Amino acid sequence: MEFITLNNGVKMPILGYGTYTIEDLKECQRCVEDAISVGYRNIDTAEVYFNERAVGAAVQNAINGGIRREELFITTKAWINHINEEKILKSFENSLQKLGLDYIDLYLIHMPYNDTYVVRGEREQTL
Length: 127
What we know:
This protein is α/β, with parallel strands linked by helices. The chain is built from 3 helices and 8 strands; from the N terminus they run E-E-E-H-E-H-E-H-E-E-E. The strands form 3 sheets. Strands 3-4-5-6 form a 4-stranded parallel β-sheet, with helices on one face.
């Protein structure tokens, strides 16, 4: 596995498995479990994907199966309208809880460029 070293010294696996569009939670969990079983260690999700619980269940199964948490690099993202201090802290805590983790390796703002976005078929405008 190749890694890149981030500015803070953390090593992140270059190859990652994304879970965007895997809305069926059982399918999402299975896909992430399969990805981990074939060597993926960088798993990407987001609160707006609505599958953090399934990703977390797959990660927990991997840990229970002998993979150390430190071997996994979990990324999730806060939704763009959660960028004030109160909302971002709540979003972060919700993601930790849904993922069932003590920490998240990388936490990003989803779509930070003031683009138009669609959530479950409803057209919205960013702040």
